[in-house]
Design goal:
three-stranded mixed beta sheet, five-stranded antiparallel beta sheet, globular, 2 domains
């Protein structure tokens, strides 16, 4: 019984956002260009693909990708209220813990895929890059529906790529993840 009371007391005094989410958040960064340098709030962090650990806070984070021959690409991660902190209604000490540790906040999204364009592209290269970008976005946002073979999504992707739905179904089925599926689709001649 004493152990149960100790656990309940500990939960009431601790911040739920901190306990369940931690004070750091892992954000995955990827791009269409391998080995692009990732800068978080101006500081060099890693090269794509990679994951960065961010201290949770009530401030937005700016991620910039740089690579020679490509235009810099920027994305902002917004700080949002961490819904798990709602459990803190149990006590003021819990809120204090979460606010001091940053556990009351989370960044969104927690994975980013950023398109980088080459510098000084021709009109044909720009059009091809825009088409590939549309394909990438479509697959990223609809991967789960594509993976199960949803006809409507496969038909839409077929219209976008010029590939037959059966070929797309096979490419997606044999892909290990969204990025692999994108690469297979983009590299397959229409």
């Amino acid at each position: 019984m004493k152990k149960f009371q100790a656990v309940i007391t500990l939960l009431l005094l601790s911040g739920c956002g901190t306990v369940f989410s931690g004070t750091q958040q892992n954000v995955t960064v990827n791009t269409n260009v391998p080995e692009a340098k990732v800068y978080v709030n101006g500081m060099p962090t890693c090269s794509t693909p990679c994951a960065v650990d961010l201290k949770r806070a009530n401030t937005n984070v700016i991620i910039i990708l740089k690579k020679d021959g490509y235009q810099d690409a920027t994305v902002a991660l917004t700080s949002q209220f961490n819904l798990i902190s709602i459990i803190n209604l149990t006590g003021v000490y819990s809120w204090t813990t979460d606010f001091l540790s940053g556990g009351v906040w989370k960044y969104s999204p927690d994975a980013v895929y950023i398109e980088m364009d080459k510098k000084e592209m021709t009109q044909a290269e720009t059009e091809q890059s825009q088409k590939i970008s549309k394909i990438r976005r479509f697959v990223l946002f609809n991967y789960s529906a594509l993976k199960v073979g949803d006809k409507e999504h496969l038909d839409s992707l077929s219209a976008l790529t010029g590939l037959k739905t059966d070929r797309l179904r096979d490419l997606i089925k044999n892909a290990s993840n969204e990025i692999d599926a994108i690469n297979k689709i983009v590299l397959t001649p229409g």
